[in-house]
Design brief:
single chain; alpha/beta; eight-stranded parallel β-barrel; 8 strands
């Protein structure tokens, strides 16, 4: 059922403002009701956990996510282990994905964050080593060839992401450099990645509030950074509300600035944290603007070590519930996602932060 069909029902007229209904009731393309969700739980969700997470748990986590209907999963980060210990085994995670592609309902793109050229080189080396293993194995016999090339395995692709920040203070704390220096790093990574036919995603942190400089981040500065990332060849930019400070006025000012710069909404993603309970409200603003890609983390996993007090990402279960209630097509099975949220929360020994997940589980237990 199309977005415009549901939004004309009386119930939705009561809860959505006129501009939102008007935006979504006019389909611009045949697929305007398709919304893409990028699951960031295995990377952004786990990176701040204090207890060491085993490789086995990470791999099972990714396999469970792959069966929910997701098409994009952020699986790890090739960052120095001394800075983010939880990501120390990302090369092993990538190797496992390539050697044993997780069963899935649809082709999946697995993303790995690379902070510098060294990280990108390690990513490329891991891919080459895995591919060489297949090549050597396939030459031994027809039986081995059939086994190692996995002709019936689900189609997967891999990509990398680069990141910077919208304030100098956060950039210094997180990357130990200025914004300009971080963009120079990104430029070198993007150039090398594209020469190896690797798609690149960009992240801009603290675009709607900074733990050091406060909630008033310049939308013009954010727009300039986003434009610079696109100019260097990034395929998509995810704009992050790392602190969860974003509110309607600041988001609308940012959208206005991005539009004035000629940046297409189809090339953008939004990455909301739910620190102040505004993530879903802000998602509807993004939909109104025309954004159709959103980042989220199952069970509300996440938090940023450089943004004190920031809670996890918006829960994937909550985001899917909202989008489906609006008639959007995510391709995700909500019940399956709820099960993953319950499983990973139990594995990590932490509370499940998804309101929708807890509600559905409570209802199921009472039936």
């Amino acid at each position: 059922m199309a977005l415009k069909t549901l939004l004309f029902r009386p119930h939705y007229r009561l809860i959505l403002n006129r501009s939102l209904r008007r935006s979504l009731s006019t389909a611009r393309t045949p697929n305007d009701d398709v919304v893409r969700i990028v699951e960031v739980g295995p990377r952004d969700g786990l990176q701040n956990e204090k207890t060491t997470i085993t490789l086995k748990t990470k791999i099972e986590f990714i396999h469970r996510l792959a069966m929910t209907g997701l098409r994009d999963i952020e699986a790890g980060s090739f960052v120095a282990p001394k800075w983010v210990p939880q990501m120390a085994n990302s090369a092993e995670v990538l190797t496992n994905i390539l050697e044993n592609p997780p069963p899935s309902r649809a082709p999946i793109t697995y993303n790995f964050l690379v902070p510098n050229l060294k990280g990108l080189e390690k990513f490329l080396e891991t891919k080459r080593n895995t591919q060489n293993l297949y090549q050597v194995s396939s030459e031994t016999s027809e039986m081995d060839k059939e086994h190692h090339t996995l002709p019936s395995a689900p189609a997967i692709t891999t990509e990398v992401s680069v990141f910077t920040a919208a304030t100098e203070s956060f950039c210094k704390a997180n990357l130990n450099c200025t914004i300009s220096e971080s963009l120079d790093r990104c430029r070198r990574i993007v150039s090398h990645a594209r020469s190896n036919d690797i798609r690149v995603r960009g992240y801009v942190s603290v675009a709607l509030g900074c733990p050091y400089e406060g909630p008033l981040v310049s939308p013009i500065r954010v727009t300039e950074i986003v434009s610079t990332l696109f100019e260097m060849g990034v395929d998509e930019v995810s704009i992050g509300d790392t602190t969860g400070m974003g509110q309607k006025p600041s988001i609308q000012e940012l959208f206005k600035s991005l539009k004035s710069a000629g940046i297409a909404s189809r090339d953008l993603a939004l990455h909301f944290h739910d620190t102040y309970g505004q993530a879903l409200v802000n998602t509807t603003l993004g939909i109104e603007y025309g954004i159709r890609t959103f980042d989220s983390s199952v069970g509300g996993l996440g938090g940023c070590p450089y943004a004190k007090g920031a809670t996890g990402n918006v829960a994937t279960e909550d985001l899917v519930y909202l989008l489906h209630s609006l008639g959007a097509n995510t391709g995700i099975d909500l019940i399956d996602m709820v099960k993953v949220g319950a499983w990973v929360s139990a594995e990590l020994g932490r509370a499940n932060e998804s309101r929708v997940g807890k509600a559905i589980l409570a209802r199921q237990s009472s039936d």
